[in-house]
Amino acid sequence: MTRVLVVDDEPQIVRALVINLKARKYEVDAAPDGATALRLAAERHPDVVVLDLGLPDMDGVEVIKGLRGWTRVPILVLSARQTSDEKVEALDAGADDYVTKPFGMDELLARLRAAVRRAEPVGGAEDGVVVVETEGFTVDLAAKKVHRDGRDVRLTPTEWHLLEVLVRNGGRLVSQKQLLQEVWGPSYGTETNYLRVYMAQLRRKLESDPSHPRHFVTEPGMGYRFER
């Protein structure tokens, strides 16, 4: 069973989420603040975290950073904050998606399923080439790992999924809309700021000169291309 950690200090929202998630056979833990969330995450190892940013003891972005220090668990932010800067801050800290309050339960559950799906291992040799090497790093699609300078590179599930789509389409232009829909889901298509944030993160982690990328190439106004 998929285990969900719900982090929110509004009892009515927690209650609604717990009821809806359990009805769909999820196991659910709940935390009313950031400190409890970090403790429960370490103890219970959830498969996905649903996190409110406005917590009583710390900002939700700090919780994201605390989790990202040791885990790649998908993080779905749930917040009343609606400005683009705040959304990008949460995504940049390591969140995988952002749902604005008030929200529809069906949409939230669809986003949650997509976040869990992105974190699942990819197929093996039947997908064709599973190890892609560049001069600076190696992508193992079957093991879902990236190596650079002899060490594993830590990627979030969303970073990995974006990398996987680009690598599997190596040398071909992948449109912004296609990337958004494959990585975030079919209801996406215009949230190009998501792509900018995550491409910048991939370049920082994998390119030798992120400001002049060799492998993750932008085709302005069109999309992105992975080159070996």
UniProtKB/TrEMBL annotation:
In terms of CDD domains, this protein maps to: REC_OmpR_KdpE-like, trans_reg_C
Q: What InterPro entries does the annotation carry?
A: CheY-like_superfamily, OmpR/PhoB-type_DNA-bd, Sig_transdc_resp-reg_receiver, WalR-like, WH-like_DNA-bd_sf
Q: Please name the GO terms of the biological process aspect recorded for this protein, alphabetically.
A: positive regulation of DNA-templated transcription
**Where in this chain does the record put each Response regulatory domain?**
3-116
According to its UniProt entry, the function of this protein is described as:
Member of the two-component regulatory system KdpD/KdpE involved in the regulation of the kdp operon. Upon phosphorylation by KdpD, functions as a transcription regulator by direct binding to promoter regions of target genes to positively regulate their expression.
Q: What is this protein called?
A: Transcriptional regulatory protein KdpE
Ranges of the DNA-binding region feature: 129-228
